[in-house]
């Protein structure tokens, strides 16, 4: 089950927010309404990296070795980029987040801070 809404305030987390998080190295997501920070679960980082790195490289290798389809390096790079991009889009749908242990501090009163 993937992360669709904030458990605290039930705010819906957009696919675009999850996609930018996955694309830029699993950056934490901050809920816009309640300010809670969520980060990608550690065990899913490795699993999702397989979709974006290892599987596209294996597909390009198998296509070039078995079928002889890809004769040049440029075509192999293109196949890796296409399948890698598809892996990022897929990973954004399956990524799981957990509440970050380091939440931002809220300032209760600006006068006390000064």
What's the SSE blueprint?
Layout: H1 15-23, E1 29-30, E2 37-40, H2 42-67, H3 73-94, E3 97-99, H4 110-113
Antiparallel strand pairs: 1-2, 2-3
Helix pairs in contact: 1-3, 2-3
Structural class: mainly alpha
The count of β-strands is 3
Biggest sheet record: 3 strands, antiparallel
Order of helices and strands: HEEHHEH
**SS field, number of helical segments:** 4
Mean pLDDT: 77
Strand content: 5-15%
**Sheet with the most strands: spatial strand order:** 1-2-3
- Total discrete domains: 1
In whole angstroms, the N-to-C terminal distance is 45 Å
Radius of gyration (CA) equals: 19 Å
Shape: elongated
Percent helix: 40-55%
Protein name: Cxxc_20_cxxc protein
Keywords: Membrane, Transmembrane, Transmembrane helix
Transmembrane segments: 46-68, 74-92
InterPro entries: CxxC_20_CxxC (IPR026369)
What's the quick description here?
InterPro entries: CxxC_20_CxxC. This protein has 114 residues and is mostly helical.
């Amino acid at each position: 089950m993937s992360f669709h809404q904030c458990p605290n305030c039930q705010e819906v987390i957009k696919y675009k927010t999850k996609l930018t998080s996955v694309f830029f190295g699993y950056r934490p997501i901050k809920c816009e309404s309640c300010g809670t920070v969520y980060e990608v679960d550690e065990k899913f980082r490795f699993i999702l990296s397989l979709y974006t790195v290892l599987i596209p490289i294996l597909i390009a290798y198998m296509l070039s070795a078995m079928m002889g389809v890809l004769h040049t390096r440029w075509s192999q790079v293109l196949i890796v980029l296409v399948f890698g991009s598809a892996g990022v889009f897929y990973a954004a749908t399956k990524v799981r987040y957990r509440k970050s242990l380091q939440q931002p501090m809220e300032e209760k009163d600006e006068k006390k801070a000064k």
